Structures are given as structure tokens and as C-alpha cells.
Amino acid sequence: MSEAQALDGAAQAQLTSFRRLWRDGFFAAFSWGAAALVTIGLPDVVPWGSAGLFAAITGALAVLFVLLSPVVYRLGRAGEVMIHYGPWLVAIGVWLALWELSTAKSGWLPKPFFSPPHGLLNVYVADGTRLLICIGYTLRLWSLGFLSGVAVGYATGVALGWSKRFSYWGMPFLKLIGPVPATAWIPCTFYFFPTTFGASVFIVALASGIPVAILTASGVGSVNRSFYDVGRILGADNRYLIRRVAIPASLPHVFVGLFMALYYSFAVLVVAEMLGAKYGLGWYIQFQTAYSGYANVYAALIIMAALCAGIVRLLFVVRDRLLRWQEGFI
What we know:
Layout: H1 3-19, H2 23-41, H3 51-68, H4 77-84, H5 86-105, H6 117-126, H7 128-162, H8 164-177, H9 186-192, H10 196-221, H11 225-233, H12 238-272, H13 281-290, H14 294-322
Helix pairs in contact: 2-3, 2-5, 3-6, 6-14, 7-8, 7-10, 7-12, 7-13, 9-10, 10-12, 11-12, 12-13, 12-14, 13-14
């Protein structure tokens, strides 16, 4: 093939890529534009606020989807991601329009029990400062409880999986307290911890540490014993076998425990922040529920779900990096 033919083929491929249209982008623009028109064009049965801002945001996104539709196939990795989630973008726009119609516009799902999308947006606009403070307090409590629980649970799990004597005494105790919900220990925490914050950290740590301990013990205990025998023949002591054989081989089980611990810790986080906390998303939910501020409750729940999803994604990235050496084996 001559150089001219190669250049002509490349130009033709580029032109074909430019002419391809992202159909889901047009459908998404239509659905998000419909959500904007419903929000701004129909009156609210009960005023919620921020309707104009929500319509502006959804309308701007609709315009953006239209502009991206002819060029999305030329955007590389970002374009691939948008193409993959194209049907979801369409569905979300339809869902927002129906959500607006069924709540703010028709009153079929009435206030205060249900909130339209622009009602949730109004919560973030009007109460954003306090929500940011609550996010900071929640992340502080969660990180202290989760990290301490994971550290203790991981060390306990390694000991349970490695030592038969420790497992003989420790595993029945772990099986005894494992099925009991962490929140059931709240009366005991008030006696053993001088502050409600310490009790809250303990509740989160307990919910996080138990699954990590059980899964780590299972991972260490399931390591092929021939690995240890080969290591001992080559002169390795127990400390080396634990660090270089048992722990790396058990990491897939450990990460399963970490994912379980993450969800359990967020499940008890709201209850833990009810133990006399002054700020935090759990406290915020409790406070707003007492005054029937259900739109604020939903807004806080969305933030908690987003935080949990972001941390899960980060944990997946860490797992993929640490277990890269095991590709093809697990």
C-alpha cells in the first residue's frame, strides 16, 4: 500500500468517525430537556424553591448532550465511558421528568413525605454549609471507627488463621459476638467509654472489624500448607512465612472482608451518630426527621450513598493494584 493510499484511508476513517452520531446522546438530550420543561413550565402544587436553578442545570446538560453527539466517538476514553452509560443517561432524564410530575406538579406523592428533584436541590442550596460541616464530622467518625476496626480485625484474623491455639480460644468467641448487631452493644458502650464520641467510634469499629477478622482468618487458614513446607525447607522462619506467604495469599479474602466491613460500617453510622452527637449526617437525619423535614433527610441519604459509593470505588482501585501480581491465578 502506498503512502498516499494510507493517508487517504486514515482520512476516510476519521471522516466516518466524525459522521457517526451518538443516538443515545440525542435521546438523553430529549429526556433531560423534557425534565427541564416540566420543571419550569408547570406550576408547583406546593412551592419548593430552586425550580429555576434545577431547570437551568438539566437544560444545560441537554444542550451538552446534543453538542457531544457528533463528536463523542472521537473523545477517546471519556467518549467510551459516555457511550457505555448512554442508556442510563436517557433513563435518568425520563425518571427526573416523571419524578417532577408525580410530586411537585401533580401532588400525587404529597409533601412533606416526598420531595421533587428541585426540592432536594433547594436543600443543598439553602442548607449547604451545615451539610458540609456534617459531612466532615461523619467522615471523621467513620474513618476513626473503620480504620481502627479494620486494623484490629486484620491482626486478629491473621492470628486466628495462623495459630491453632489462638483459633481454639478465639474463634468460638468471635462466632458468639459476630451475629449480634453492633448496635446491640450500645448499653455497654456507655459504661466503658467516657464520651459518646468514643462509644460511637467503638460501634463503627465493631461493625467493621468482625467481617475483616473472619474473612482474614479464612484466607490465612486456606493457604496451601505445601507453601509453608517449602519455605521452611529454604530456611524461612514463622515471621517470614506470615509476612511473605500467608498475608499475600490471603489478600483476596481480606478484600472481601473489607467490602463487607465498609457496608456494615455505613449501616451503623447513622445509629452511632445518634449517641449524643452535635453534628454529622446521622445527627442531621435524626434532627430533620423530628421536624418532618423529609426533603432534608433524603438529601442527607443521597450524600451518604454517594460517599459510600466513592469509597467502594477507591477500594476497588486499591484492590486491583495490590492484587495485580495474582492475575491469572485467581
